[in-house]
Write a structure and sequence with these properties.
427 residues; alpha/beta; 13 strands
């Protein structure tokens, strides 16, 4: 399961992949309209249940058509398991929707199939997007992807287990050495998993990047060149291997363990510390767990940034509905409409006005630590067409770098060569 799945599970925490089928319905509203826009979107809830995203989109489409009777919106909602293939098949067959909401956009932008954001939204609407997210929507410095919802990561720890281990339950570790010391004490106190290190294929690339950020590393440099085997990244994986994995301060075989497994173990009181996101807050709250949050630890103190992840909206040129698409997208990102979706699923808004509203909404106080990290969050280089293959390769093998007997330099250099080859092939 990759980053799109955590968003897909945000409404339920553990939405089952089995039985998730496509939902479709027409949000036609009053009047037939002169233009019918086709919208394909992902379901962040349970298909067929009262938290399905289909309900949100149909209501929004009806409200939009009441405001713009010349435009109707036909809505189709697919599960996260299905939407990638369904949408890809539509585009490949020459029949893309007018608007799509999914987890990637770069390949279609590179093929010239998408409108630029500047062709869709007026400048005040464009300016509403948080800067880091707008930049993450760019291909060759031109924005094609409109951020839809986002999330960041923070350190989460079990306060009861900290107290049991003689640690201050109100003081999370802020450096790698402090984390190592805490993990050692948690292990001595009999905690099953002192530090949860999910380097399995679900989201190994995310966990690895969070650690690299704490050492001044990243996956790309300031101009977008891959830096997977930078000295900082190699040093990071060596430290993980020698200071957490080899001493047994993590779960056995982290390269085989997925994030959701550790989230469930954390919620069950079996994990001392891990990197979490809003879905874990929901899960832990349901279990009545006493937990705290903090910034990600860095090599010598709190990390300067954290991982940000997001999903995207885009508009296809095929049907020549640019003006109608722009009107609908402006409506989607109106504060009340955008906030309604983010609030419904416990995710972070992508516009300034909606973010400020969440900051004032005490109902979402537990999301404030994640919101605090958004401005400095680093996003995957989703604007690179080569990222899709690079991401898959990272998920498959980056965890091997931190295992007992692993060779970080060799693993990361092999990944770097694959990424560079993919980048060359695309260009």
């Amino acid at each position: 399961m990759d980053r799109r799945r955590f968003l897909g599970m945000a409404a339920t925490g553990v939405a089952s992949a089995a039985g998730m089928t496509a939902l479709s319905g027409c949000g036609s509203g009053p009047g037939s309209g002169d233009v019918t826009l086709k919208l394909v979107a992902a379901d962040y809830g349970n298909p067929g249940a009262n938290n399905s995203s289909k309900i949100y989109w149909r209501k929004l489409a009806d409200a939009f058509t009441r405001k713009h009777p010349e435009i109707s919106v036909d809505v189709t909602v697919y599960s996260w398991n299905d939407i990638g293939k369904k949408l890809g098949d539509m585009v490949d067959s020459g029949n893309p929707p007018d608007i799509a909401q999914v987890d990637s956009y770069a390949s279609w932008a590179a093929e010239g199939k998408l409108y630029k954001v500047s062709e869709l939204l007026p400048i005040p609407d464009q300016a509403e997007f948080l800067v880091s997210l707008a930049e993450a929507g760019e291909v060759q410095r031109v924005q094609y992807g409109l951020p839809f919802v986002t999330s960041t990561r923070v350190l989460m720890y079990n306060k009861d287990l900290f107290a049991k281990a003689g640690l201050d339950p109100d003081k999370p570790p802020e450096s790698w050495e402090a984390l190592k010391s805490a993990a050692r004490k948690l292990k001595q106190a009999g905690v099953e998993i002192p530090y949860g290190l999910p380097l399995g294929p679900e989201e190994a690339q995310g966990e690895a990047l969070m650690w690299c950020l704490g050492n001044g590393g990243s996956y790309v440099d300031s101009v977008g060149n891959y830096t997977l085997n930078s000295p900082e990244n190699i040093e990071t994986m060596e430290w993980l291997r020698d200071n957490l994995v080899v001493p047994g301060y993590t779960e056995p075989d982290p390269q085989r363990v997925d994030r959701q497994q550790l989230f469930e173990a954390f919620s069950a009181g079996k994990v001392g510390v891990l990197n979490g996101h809003p879905t874990l807050v929901q899960q832990a709250d349901k279990k009545g767990l006493a937990y705290g949050t903090g910034k990600l630890p860095g090599r010598d103190g709190p990390a300067d940034g954290t991982l940000g992840v997001g999903d995207w909206m885009m508009a296809f040129k095929k049907n020549d509905h640019r003006e109608a698409c722009g009107k609908f997208l402006s409506f989607v990102y109106e504060e009340k409409n955008h906030y309604a979706f983010a609030s419904r699923y416990g995710l972070l808004p992508v516009t300034t006005s909606a973010s400020e509203r969440m900051r004032k909404d005490k109902k979402h106080k537990k999301l404030w630590p994640f919101l605090d990290q958004l401005a400095g969050a680093e996003f995957y280089p989703v604007g690179k067409v080569s990222w899709t293959g690079t991401n898959a390769a990272l998920k498959k093998s980056v965890g091997k770098a931190a295992m007992k007997g692993g060779d970080p330099k060799a693993v990361l250099t092999a990944l770097q060569r694959k990424a560079e080859a993919a980048e060359k092939a695309e260009s």
